[in-house]
User: What shape does this take?
Amino acid sequence: MRNVEIKAKVNDFDEICKIAEELSGAPPTIIHQNDTFYKVNTGRLKLRVYADESATLVRYDRDDEQGPKLSNYDLLEFSVNESAKIKTFDDIMKKCLGVRGNVIKERRLYMVDQTRIHIDKVDGLGKFMELEVVLRPEQTLEDGQAIAKDLQMKLGVKDIDLIDCAYVDLLDKN
Assistant: This one.
């Protein structure tokens, strides 16, 4: 699977949420996430656990650069009734790979066509915006970049506020 992503620091949380809701035509879905990042040789690997105790294993790689960038990813879903399996899986991964870091956040999800707008409150970091343009098979990287850049402008996000890395990287820097 492929998407084009933009991530930026948010200066006016209420305003960007208002604009995102107008663009999506619906109120946000509030999602509480606890991401455990494992130590890996290439890319990133995280287990995202949700408040309902379901989880998603996410493997992804993307360049650390500002602006719209391509991300390739794979997902493995665990359902709510698999919470014991999730815990065992996490324990095994921690023993085998070690933990790189942990990111806890409250995410507001807005959908605009094929794009997920995330407005995040990240523990220990602050407030951020993330766009994920999920590319259709026939779409190019340039198509996704154009969609992301258009939404960035509509949301009032300035290039100076763009960040080039994952939240776990920012936590490492702190």
